[in-house]
Amino acid sequence: MARRVLFWLVAGAAALALIIVAALIGFRLTSQARENESRVDAAPASGQFITAADVGIYVQEAGPASGVPVLLIPGLGAWSETWRPTIDALVQAGYRVIAIDLPPFGYSFRPVTSDYSTPAQAKRILAVLDALKIDSVVLVGHSFGARATVEAAMSAPKRVRALVLVCAALGLQEPPGGDDNGFLTRAVLGTRPLRNAVVASLGTNPWLTGTLLRAFTVRHEAITSQRIEIYQRPQRVNGTTEAFGRWLAQFVLSDERPASQQAALYRALKMPTLIIWGESDTITPLPQGQHLASLLPDATLVTMPGIGHIPQLEDERTFDQLLVENLARRLGPRQ
């Protein structure tokens, strides 16, 4: 009897393993078939590609050339178009708006070196300013995009007129990633075919886009089919899963400790800083925002009740109003 039970346990485990492997392979093959578009052909005509450091960055611009420049930097899995309501609100208020796709997400080209480190991303942000001949700018960074945003501000503080950080995932309370990862994590992320299969199943799987957005938010009614489709568009670009996997491996396994993860260095950021946070954010809980505000010499923390990790998506009207009103208060005239 015991042998029979053991046999069925082993057989069941083997069958489950085979099902998982088959599913991973299936999702990876599906992603390869789906990712068949050139980024140049697929990118919306509303933007352009500009050379910034080591890559071609997809940029969307709007608003008067004489307005104060505001550069929008999206978070994990997002791209410039996900900022559209905010772009429109800022343009209406008289700002010159530049929204970028930070690789590997969106339509921007991916670096040949696969360097997605925080300092490398910050250099690309500053290179966008150089390419557009912008001397000083308001930097707005959301979630993981805030890391490169802060890094850019620390690298060139005189070029940052003001800083806006939205539910910033800065990792100030985290040890370097490479120290705490177990064997399984390293094995999965360090093995390219397995990593890509997992990413294709979970990260770039369009069937899960809505589910992932709802996991990051509180007001699920804001996750409309139209908004889901916007997030899904770049998933058709060649090599999306491969690039996402490389980014994920570097992010999780790297032991880098950039300036933006060193709390003591925040005291040197003298520019006006607006911090917008969802009070119900479970990805970066509110105490992280409060801690961040305590580190900065000239910070204003504004919270949004009943909002999660993507305020500009969950309650775009309130978010845009807070952003425009606080920028006007801190910057004065917009010309």
Structure, explained:
- The chain has 335 residues and is α/β, with parallel strands linked by helices.
- The chain has helices at 2-34, 39-42, 84-92, 118-131, 145-155, 183-190, 192-202, 209-216, 225-232, 240-253, 286-295, 311-314, 316-331; strands at 47-52, 55-62, 69-73, 96-100, 137-142, 160-166, 273-278, 299-304.
- The chain has one domain (49-331): Alpha/Beta hydrolase fold, catalytic domain (Rossmann fold), CATH 3.40.50.
- It is built from 13 helices and 8 strands.
- Walk across the major sheet and give the strand order: 1-2-4-3-5-6-7-8
Structural class from helices and strands? alpha/beta
* The CATH homology group name: Alpha/Beta hydrolase fold, catalytic domain
How many structural domains in the coordinates?
A: 1
